Batch of 4 targets.
Target 1
Amino acid sequence: MNIEKFQIAEFNQSLQQSHERNFHHIAENINGLPEILQKLQDFQVAIPSWALGTGGTRFGRFSGGGEPRNIEEKITDVGLLHALNRSSGSISLHIPWDIPENAAAIKALAAQHDIRFDAVNSNTFQDQPGQAHSYKFGSLHHTDKAVRKQAIEHNIEVIRYGVELGSNALSLWLADGSCFPGQLNFRGAFKHTLDSLQEIYAALPSDWKLWIEYKAYEPNFYSTTIGDWGQSLLFANKLGPKAQTLVDLGHHLPNANIEQIVSLLLMEGKLAGFHFNDSKYGDDDLTVGSINPYQLFLIFNELIEGMDARSMNHATDLGWMIDASHNVKDPLEDLLQSVEAIMIAYAQALLVDTKALQAAQQDNDAVAAQEILQHAYRTDVRPLIAQARLLSGGVLEPVYFYRKLKVREGLIKERGLKTVATGL
Amino acid sequence: MNIEKFQIAEFNQSLQQSHERNFHHIAENINGLPEILQKLQDFQVAIPSWALGTGGTRFGRFSGGGEPRNIEEKITDVGLLHALNRSSGSISLHIPWDIPENAAAIKALAAQHDIRFDAVNSNTFQDQPGQAHSYKFGSLHHTDKAVRKQAIEHNIEVIRYGVELGSNALSLWLADGSCFPGQLNFRGAFKHTLDSLQEIYAALPSDWKLWIEYKAYEPNFYSTTIGDWGQSLLFANKLGPKAQTLVDLGHHLPNANIEQIVSLLLMEGKLAGFHFNDSKYGDDDLTVGSINPYQLFLIFNELIEGMDARSMNHATDLGWMIDASHNVKDPLEDLLQSVEAIMIAYAQALLVDTKALQAAQQDNDAVAAQEILQHAYRTDVRPLIAQARLLSGGVLEPVYFYRKLKVREGLIKERGLKTVATGL
Amino acid sequence: MNIEKFQIAEFNQSLQQSHERNFHHIAENINGLPEILQKLQDFQVAIPSWALGTGGTRFGRFSGGGEPRNIEEKITDVGLLHALNRSSGSISLHIPWDIPENAAAIKALAAQHDIRFDAVNSNTFQDQPGQAHSYKFGSLHHTDKAVRKQAIEHNIEVIRYGVELGSNALSLWLADGSCFPGQLNFRGAFKHTLDSLQEIYAALPSDWKLWIEYKAYEPNFYSTTIGDWGQSLLFANKLGPKAQTLVDLGHHLPNANIEQIVSLLLMEGKLAGFHFNDSKYGDDDLTVGSINPYQLFLIFNELIEGMDARSMNHATDLGWMIDASHNVKDPLEDLLQSVEAIMIAYAQALLVDTKALQAAQQDNDAVAAQEILQHAYRTDVRPLIAQARLLSGGVLEPVYFYRKLKVREGLIKERGLKTVATGL
Amino acid sequence: MNIEKFQIAEFNQSLQQSHERNFHHIAENINGLPEILQKLQDFQVAIPSWALGTGGTRFGRFSGGGEPRNIEEKITDVGLLHALNRSSGSISLHIPWDIPENAAAIKALAAQHDIRFDAVNSNTFQDQPGQAHSYKFGSLHHTDKAVRKQAIEHNIEVIRYGVELGSNALSLWLADGSCFPGQLNFRGAFKHTLDSLQEIYAALPSDWKLWIEYKAYEPNFYSTTIGDWGQSLLFANKLGPKAQTLVDLGHHLPNANIEQIVSLLLMEGKLAGFHFNDSKYGDDDLTVGSINPYQLFLIFNELIEGMDARSMNHATDLGWMIDASHNVKDPLEDLLQSVEAIMIAYAQALLVDTKALQAAQQDNDAVAAQEILQHAYRTDVRPLIAQARLLSGGVLEPVYFYRKLKVREGLIKERGLKTVATGL
């Protein structure tokens, strides 16, 4: 299932007139348009390999058809997305679900699709067949040294895979925690985790980062050993400059002010990056921007303001990744919608009149501050995104194009109706 | 793995002296002791067949050993529990996980263990192999009539199985809902569900009940079609007197006052019964009483007060069932702890000085009301439960006995180390 | 402080060119534009009298200047708002904070400002000087008949005031509840409340409605006697056709799906109307649309769809009111922002392609449903609202105009710097 | 209103027999009883001066009678509590509500009642009459240097008051935050706060501590500048060894695992102490142990385990204070209940079999860990508390005694029926 350039060109042609009308309307009102378009073109969101297949819940899974059956097909899928939106130029692999047996071939395939390898992810929340020790009671925090050792070695192995592919970060999420009061000694668990992380940290190549994700709950339902940003930051500070905190939007207690957390982590130089998704209740892993797009905008507003204050490069100095699980949507359509939502929030944040906002903040003028933010938010920036995509060789309306070309039908023809992605 | 009477007798003998000391201490302070002991002996909690194996989360499952491999072994496990605590005298089956191919033999086996068949549970939240239509987008609320028909027929089939076994209630939990705004027309979903329920209701034998469970979220993460007690009650009222609302402790939004809900449902004559478990975050399905035992007591306090006001029989006029999922505990030990926690809350509620409480309420004397409730709650009622168990032929300390007799080791020897219960 | 027509005309003139450019851009893409503009002009949001002064929390209040000191000045303030946005054509009074001593004069004043009297609000959550019985332990649910009687009579008195002014609904919010387990008998409280409501219901004029608001918690922190929509609906159904449920956006437990509640209440013919505000944590009473504007849109989407299905008149068949409390903003600016946010959500909901949405729902096409909803939501509808305002004689940009004319400074000159609105 | 020793003796005599029976029953089962009784006698809980009058909500206040009208009467009230329970031997003052005009006289009065002065509290969340700058938009985080300076000087003044009275800690809670997105620059607010805190820190006497409280929300409803333990710890670490984090049980997002936070703060040597209360929804400030007593026990379990691991003195090495607000109870009765609940949780935690628990934790034996914890929790420790009280000269049943002696009636006779405590 390849997308040909002429197909894109034909499609774009058919929407050109309407697009130009919309683009010119917004363009006239924007200062620094070329710079904004360039930033939009540069911005890339990594696709996690596990989001390419239909997800599930503990109550069951309802697979879709044509899902990728191996790492090669996963790269092909990301290539498809990237061909359409030109904003999905990297993939984040998960070991052991996506072991690159032949790194050179895998890299060549990715290069063909203009795809980079983002952070690599380890997995110590499931037992693999033949594994010596079980992670039932945790991994890096385990009371048994042998289990910790196995988990440390797995992480170091994941780094090795990453080095071969040109990755430069290990993204680490631990399910370690407890389900019942008394089950765990919290300090002991913290100290074991720190010891384990220090061994992994020591194995990092000099230009690598260690991204430490936190999560309030699930799959453990009483405590999680890296449960909030404060705990993650404690670890990152004790480990050293390569260690940073990774924020996943769905990993908080109800009503948390995530934008404030982001701002403070950036201030401390300890924000690694983002796992984007949306949620209403818990770690629901829904399409980015499907539940609360204004919150996403507010987060981007803090990111841009904080990165600019530190002269950081938006496109390269933080990790941007989707982490969602698509239970009732076609995974590729869902990812197109998620990337679009991220680009919209980013574009809106770029439109905020920072100077006016700072003045309003200095005066405690909450009314003016809201007007300034909501003016940017209420602006229909879709023509800007579309224009950036057009300039990069993508399609004006990715979801529409995807359906018109019957991409899923093509994938089903190639791969079959009953496929389950590895790792799902 | 059979528990012999002499083993129980020997064990109890070893603890007899200490038990008597404790029992006599509390007994002297209690009015109406014989009646309370009788109520404790009469009270029985149904064990759901799916709680006999190790549960899991969407991130994985870590099975234990010696788990029951079929309906017969599940009944045997409940028999084991009942032999120990004499309070687990019924089982709640789940179709299609526990299809009773030979009802007569199954009934004979259950009778041997002094086990009754509680409500039967249908399953329209998973697709079974060979099923004509998928429940990916719901069952009784589905936009497609054919899917609804299939789900209705399944429920009617479950009733038939229940009739054969001597059950008298269909317990119905629907995962039907939506993951994204716009996916569902709420009114349409409600009306389809009502139509479907009416067909199922029409198929109920005259002495049967339909228990309608509600749940705020999961596995759907935007809306659930029967999402709270208000919606369940709407359905139950539209259906008729056989339909009632089932309350599961973990199926609420954060901070819900469940005891008030219970009280009002009882007032309306529409409380079907309970699914007991405990939780800190969502539907965590933890051991009953492991997180917030005071809440459990407050619920029982409302139940007893409300049932007494309607002259209901505590043991028989509501459905009492555990619905938990044991990810890190031996399932049988977990169930022993859960039943014990329920018995403790029930005993504490029986000790509440109702007249004094009513007087304090009449005077808006919140201090006295709290003293009265907490006096009952802080009383160590474990000797009462133990005494009731002793009178019924059970063991004084079930968990301790279970470990001393190495029951799990026996089950592993019989069934193997790697077993997964049907349905898990 | 009067706004003169020529001031509005001059101001609008200065923004005319830019407005027309924006309006024509959006107008070309919209079907049925005249009808939509008419609906936007017809739509009116009631202003509660207590929102015209600075609010406060239990930790203190920081008053602003020029606040209205009596009912006449409150009506003048609403008149100011309405002159600007032409969408605030009614006021909701609160007794005893706003007793209309001379109804004829008050009505004349309101008519002068083109202001109608929306629902009247009773207050049984505070003790007034000289009151015979205290509401410390509740009002309509009180264990003491004398307290209930006093509260019933107060409500009937409020109806009388409302009749004189031309109101046609009594809006009733009860703080009644309990702070501690055991303090209250839930059934007793429900029954007392029902008895009390029946007496009030009997006193309603034939064309009046009784709006029953619910709230999960605060100022009581254990239980609230009308705590959720299910309880409010129970009361409304037991009372009769004049009784309906009023929804306040901030009165729910965390993560509640309010749009589903709205849809079901509409389906049952029992939705009275809305108290608009926004919140992040609890009943924060923030500016409408300041925290989660997409949720507001989703609610309007259900309202429009549900009202259209019952052929209801958007403007007149439900009660639309703001209920916010402005702690750090100029109250009038805040209300202008709130009304604007409501109009935006309403306009976006009017743009939803209902037929396409229904088709997507029928097909369980969550991707398409989201595209359809978000297309309407992402459309910048501000030029539509501005145009409707222009057609009605209002100003293009109310907040900007308000500041440019230094309205607050004028009010301070008239009323003084240290004023506290009655009731605050 | 003085309690005479003979009154206590007579009262205790009347309950002696029953108490002895209960005490001996539990005493036989406990190892190290004398040491436990000594610890219970040594443990003292500070009473905040503002908890001695009836609290209120933003919706109103319903005062009780006989409330203390000045600092002297507040000390007298704490003296009353301490005479009864011998566990309330200190008071925490709040400036400017309780300015000690004559420190020597105040100290003499306190000494007479055997009362110590715990941490002093500053107040920058309300404006006082005649204050130069308003705290409407915050204090230590304010964008205006003059406001920050005023707030810094107030805190330094509070330290001076504390020094005179023999206090040795400044307890600081900031309401600083924002109500709307955009209102505040988070980094700017953090940095301003840090600068301000550094000035206050510099003014601390050498043996003093600075306790930094955090709170998730209220009275600000979008962000709080010291919003969670992670932020408080960041400040405390940047300030130095005298700065520590204070935990208030009601200041968290829903479902937070407070016991884990406590454990980690202790591990880092940064736990200052506790503000005890209970809550169901937010910062409800209810009686300690009235909603979730098991959580209180779990927190004490972590405290004792963590303090013992660092060889800390339970009674003196952390700050223990109640921070509640009594809206519907007699404040003194409420405080007696709160102190009793704290003593019960402490006693239960002392009974935990630490060695067995550690062994269960090492084995990941969640069932055994729960049995161990719940065995201690289910033990009726009230006779232990009563015995400790008896040994210290207190009364066996404080609430009962308080009512029997008609203490409130006496206070009303002395002070009048309509009194409002200063600061309320």
Note: The longest strand of chain B covers residues 243-248.
Target 2
Amino acid sequence: MKAVMSLAAALGGLALMANATSAQEPVKKKGDQEVSRTIHGYDYGSDRLPRSPVTLEDFEKLKATVLLGEGDLNALRKSRAVLEPQVDEILDVWYGFVGSQPQLLAYFSNAAGKPDGDYLQKVRERFGQWILDTADARYDQAWLDYQYEIGRRHHRVGKNRADDADAVNHIHYRYLPALIYPVTATLKPFLEKGGFAPEEVEAMHQAWIKSVLLQVILWSQPYVREGDF
Amino acid sequence: MKAVMSLAAALGGLALMANATSAQEPVKKKGDQEVSRTIHGYDYGSDRLPRSPVTLEDFEKLKATVLLGEGDLNALRKSRAVLEPQVDEILDVWYGFVGSQPQLLAYFSNAAGKPDGDYLQKVRERFGQWILDTADARYDQAWLDYQYEIGRRHHRVGKNRADDADAVNHIHYRYLPALIYPVTATLKPFLEKGGFAPEEVEAMHQAWIKSVLLQVILWSQPYVREGDF
């Protein structure tokens, strides 16, 4: 019985996601700051954000540790043109996955287990922009500060606030790194549609894995005990 | 000047590792519990270990989130025979990588930056056994408890104690997930040497990525704030 109810909740979530798709506004065009402001809560570059406790120097050491170099930056930037026309389909796959896994859909739902459709929609718009930002790989101070903010929005210190959402107030840490796998594995078929040679697609995919891993590390900062990060 | 000294420290670390290789004892044979006891600090299955705060039920949900299923368990177990004869060469690659990255070698070194050769050697023996345990993929309560202990041995609550080591007392959280990439990427050429078809090698590699990701999540538990995990 519980399994059936979970399935129903998941399908409800998927239906909400389908509505969200059709209602979505076009994502920001490159270099067009005006358009980006139409994405609710998208605060990359905002002066209001607190500074990341992780420095650019710390981040360079992390880049070296995951073997992310110039070739990866080029591959990420090359992936933008491949992925931008497919953003909605990618989000359908990712939202479909979240909707199919009750332990994940729970974080978009209130205490009674009802998914918050408005919240799902607002997050979806920023998630689409995140695909483009990941491909752009700017890795500047504003980017670092925004990663800190994204981490805070997963954690009880900041979840729901940007969207005035009616959902549980904390995403458990363990699911942040866990999602690296399904997000990057499901991206590969989309990277393959750009007409590049298999080794170029593989280079883009590996660069994406490294970048998502780095971002999840940054997002984890608010979860880690003082001095332990 | 600082870069030159870091390089010298790294090369010193590599020399220590080369010694460590020749001195290493044979790793445990499958099913031979007596032999396993010769690995210093290898406490898988020990009654003295505290129970993991992560339950087997929590772990099942994590497995589902990283898409780890029966096919992955088979692929991991198939990888054992491929990797076992290559354990020393794999460790040479991983230790060579750590030795080449000053920000990583620092965790095997004392406050003055001198690597602790005895500590490097003791960790190396357990690291070899870890390759076999990862391939075995038992995922029982004893395994879960030992993952918790491994996490504690990275964190200030337990680092250095098992080996009476003279090294800094805490590995910063951020390098645990970061190491997933170099560890799994460098494993693939070793998986390719088993004579399996490319798609079987790829299945083994993907299963390894999922397993290492799950383990790093478990090892992170001592770093995460109360209630946040």
Note: The mean pLDDT of chain B is 88.
Target 3
Amino acid sequence: MKRLGDFLNMESFDLALLEEVWSEQDFQHLRQKLLPTYPAAHYFRSGIIGSGLCVFSKHPIQEFTQHVYTLNGYPYMIHHGDWFCGKAVGLLVLHLSGLVLNVYVTHLHAEYNRQKDIYLTHRVAQAWELAQFIHHTSKKADVVLLCGDLNLHPKDLGCRLLKEWTGLHDAYLETRDFKGSEEGCTMVPENCYVNQRELEPFPFGIRIDYVLYKAVSGFYISCKTLRTTTGHDPHSGSPLSDHEALMATLCVRHSPPQHTPSPTHGPEGSQLISVLKEAWRELDLGVAQARWWATFASYVIGLGLLLLAFLCALAAGGGVREVAILLWTPSVGLLLGAGAVYLFHMQEAKGLSGARAELQHVLGRAREAQDSGPESQPALLLGQQEGDGTEEQ
Amino acid sequence: MKRLGDFLNMESFDLALLEEVWSEQDFQHLRQKLLPTYPAAHYFRSGIIGSGLCVFSKHPIQEFTQHVYTLNGYPYMIHHGDWFCGKAVGLLVLHLSGLVLNVYVTHLHAEYNRQKDIYLTHRVAQAWELAQFIHHTSKKADVVLLCGDLNLHPKDLGCRLLKEWTGLHDAYLETRDFKGSEEGCTMVPENCYVNQRELEPFPFGIRIDYVLYKAVSGFYISCKTLRTTTGHDPHSGSPLSDHEALMATLCVRHSPPQHTPSPTHGPEGSQLISVLKEAWRELDLGVAQARWWATFASYVIGLGLLLLAFLCALAAGGGVREVAILLWTPSVGLLLGAGAVYLFHMQEAKGLSGARAELQHVLGRAREAQDSGPESQPALLLGQQEGDGTEEQ
């Protein structure tokens, strides 16, 4: 923390967005240290441990708020701990040189096993919630900036969904001046805090931290330079974190509306539809799985109740009373445990089907726009990108 | 449900917003029945039981999303059940005659005992979250409409906070043409489903359901007529619900910016500051109380661990082995229960202090605006009302 504070003070960024600052004391320590350079700061509190998100800004923060993700892993996966953090997205509104800048900082659920990722559905649901939160809260912003640890590779469903639905651009793909780790990776094998075995399939490392941005029509935003650290502290030896830092210089200019950069890849409408479909299928699978677990738990509850009744009868009837009393504890435990699992997965199913319904609605609108001919198609996308969309009337 | 469907079909509103529709099957039944009159519908899914919120619209719904409240009562208050609902605010975006209309529907935590209201802090936190959600998602809306069961009396802190921070107006106070129950009450003693004893201190009943609205500068919104049911089905005998229905006819006109109705009461800035202060104090009290419970639970955990160690020693040492084994179950139960209480109240403290930090920031800005003279004061309020606020630069 001491060295991180020194580094941030020396670099004197306009804005520094941090994740995984789990201790509020660490934040308070940093805040004191950074006060002269970054007069504005905020720590986003949520969950049991905390979201870990905080921000330091050279410019006054006009407004802030946060949205805690509805789904965030499983409470019984204690060794993974994500559920206890209450992962969230934080929003800051800044007014810079007459521009309204909405800055989002987030940290999505970690991926512990890429081959058998039990958190995939939750991460897709989080990416959708994040995209919807940005979509609905940035309608009057001139510039939107999203930074954070998405725990998503660039081609992963969640990342594509987020970019397609919000229209955000990836600083790494857009900049002409990149310096740092190979392929822009933010978890690299050179970093001594990184589990080398997990990175085995990826010789250069993985890119899961992002700087994403967009500007509304009338403004043009570009990434002048993008730098990453490369597994070491930029000055002394050991790295400041297990993830590499991303440092971007962004440039915002006024521009006639038509100069807004057109999306880089292919026919946009069909791409949006295809990624929405894919996400819908993933959430649908998740709903089915959550319901399966809830049903399974309800059978266990039934079984536990039967067992308990049987034990009570045994104890009352005498004979093997001691055995009955001994077995009473585990069967009550089973009952309570199964009850908790049932409630949790019912809530998971509700959360996932809520997100699925939102996705389905957007999918329906995108299809309508596509069916009504290529003229109206850019309108939906422009509308979506600018948070308008009156064309659908 | 059958009679409710008939009623909604016959009245043929533009928009019908319902709360406490706990069963999705009921919603699906209504949806089928209302399809010809209300082609668009949505059910907001959340929590374990569900938010109970749904909407039927004659006009297409362009977009929708939802925000589940961070704090919503206590899971161990099973007989109250609010925690299990996952109470939320639902947002619909409609485009009507070239206007962007943001419609919010919500249901806040119930008040079970007004004299000793253990949910007061949570309801204030929910009112703040609701106000912030509206504030941040309605910045490009021309008209904002909030309907729902707030479980707040008109003068309650949560209600004042919501109205002061969003600039929403109360249809009942604004309309010149009201017909219905005495004083606009929405829970009246005439209703046979209402607990008469709870209403004893309020001879006419209580007003806890609202239609609130505002229009941005350039538009003018007024409530032409407001009607309520009066404890009976409008046609046959028994009422359709324990709450009276609110039916409003709203009129939106273009108007020069200066014709925007000025807030009805006194010096606005100081009123906002005073309600923010009051809410801050309430949340601060809540944080202290949540921390007290967490500390208490941690002591119980320590005690439970000691007891368990003692019982294990007793069992191992022989002698009163049977007693030790018998006591083992309740002490493990105590440990697990206290652990759950500890985690819950830690999360409560985090959630409350998150809301308190947001409040404090807004309070600071409002004070700055007041200090810098009466000229800039309306600017903050106008900015807040219109979701702008560049004047603070």
Note: Chain B touches chain A through 56 residues (CB under 8 Å).
Target 4
Amino acid sequence: MFSPKFVALVQALRGLPSVGQKTAQRMALQLLEHDREGAAQLARAIVAALEGIGRCESCRIFSETPVCPVCADNHRDATQLCIVESPTDWLAIEQSGAYQGLYFILSGHLSPLDGIGPEDIGIPELMNRLANSPVEEIIMATSATIEGEATAGYIMDRVDPARYKVTRLAQGVPMGGELEYLDAQTLSLALKSRRSV
Amino acid sequence: MFSPKFVALVQALRGLPSVGQKTAQRMALQLLEHDREGAAQLARAIVAALEGIGRCESCRIFSETPVCPVCADNHRDATQLCIVESPTDWLAIEQSGAYQGLYFILSGHLSPLDGIGPEDIGIPELMNRLANSPVEEIIMATSATIEGEATAGYIMDRVDPARYKVTRLAQGVPMGGELEYLDAQTLSLALKSRRSV
Ligand SMILES: [Zn+2]
Ligand SMILES: [Zn+2]
């Protein structure tokens, strides 16, 4: 009903998380009707992000430099390594302000039924990361879901318990809860009361 | 905390309607982490839309051609002109399938307190549109809000009641309701039972 280029724009906007047909249409109308400069800005920001943002060699977070600012910061405690499932979880922990160690960001969790194995989520890279590092404590901050627990278990089976202290976020994380939806205070508490496993 | 290009992307996404900081972050992460091809597609779709989509000379809806497909369709009834406040309202009526006439799309409604006068919403263009046309019935489909009613009243004061039959959508439109949120059936009924004013 609208022009083909409008339809294509709506279609592309629908690719954004939790954007359905109606919302995508409203977004496209808003961009064309009231915010053409904002739309141009968005297109430029996407292209710049795609071209300029890669992954940190060390922790795999998005980074514009080979090593991200967190990994490059020598005020961070390199003896602690916090393992998370996603950049969103990384962000949630960073924003809590309760953690001063380093990170390793997996690409999700193990899910054998979906054919997602250790290689798909970066576990070999994690093992390399651990091999040549001063890490003493591994903080398993995967989600408190069945898959998150299974992923943590899989990793724990493969690290030397004599060499590393392995901890898990405390019970403050609700069962089935995803880290990215937790408030900073709950996350802070869960980090502070983390326990050995 | 994230890289500057990521922050810029989040900022640009926040310009979309009803997208706050948290949602924008999730969108940016999704695009970079899981959907780089979709992100590139979105950037291209935005640029193509901005470059290729203008306004129909006749009704002012978004169009890739000087005259839009609706205005160019000689199966539509050129004696009826439906006046709406926005492309979204236009879309809602088109999707109801209940209307076969033509349109004129205003840029919103009059709002003297915000300094929005007749010239800002396209009323002079509407008068030109009426001047050289076979229009017999003007259907005022502005929103059932105070501003929508005031806009309809302003236009009605300026068209010759001897020359045009002027109608308004029937009471099916709830008071304070915005057209774009109505279901197609309610809109169909409101159109069918429109009344002379
Ligand atoms: Zn890093
Ligand atoms: Zn037109």
Note: Chain A has a mean pLDDT of 88.
